[in-house]
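Appendix B. Raw example, untouched.
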Amino acid sequence: MWADDRDIAPRTRTVGFQVPAELDQLTMAHALAETILLIGGFALDEVTDLLLALDEVVTALVLVAAPDAMIDCAFTVGDGTLGARVATLSRTPEAIDEDAFGWHVVATLTDALRTEYAQFDPALDGYPTAVAFGWIRRFQGPAAS
């Protein structure tokens, strides 16, 4: 990137973490994501909504995860936007139930939502599965500062 481009390029940061794909690790994923969002400048009500979406996604992935799998979370934060990608290794192909109530909650709380499935990976003994979602701040004001 050229020095002059730094003034017009969007400012983003990607931060990630990994936790075992176990329900008792949901609290850890929640706490780490909350810290990332608060440091990223999101207001408390925004953080609450985004954490609810994340909790639903992590829970859905944990329920389909292969034994000893990990949950990989990556968050790209910048100027009132969030891009999130949460992935694991699934026991079965296309394992996420996108008709479940929790999935509709995630779709309501986010601006973009997609599930990515890959072919069976014999080296990993499972199906790489990822959920990506995005969110954009709609207003500017005191909460957006």
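End of appendix B.
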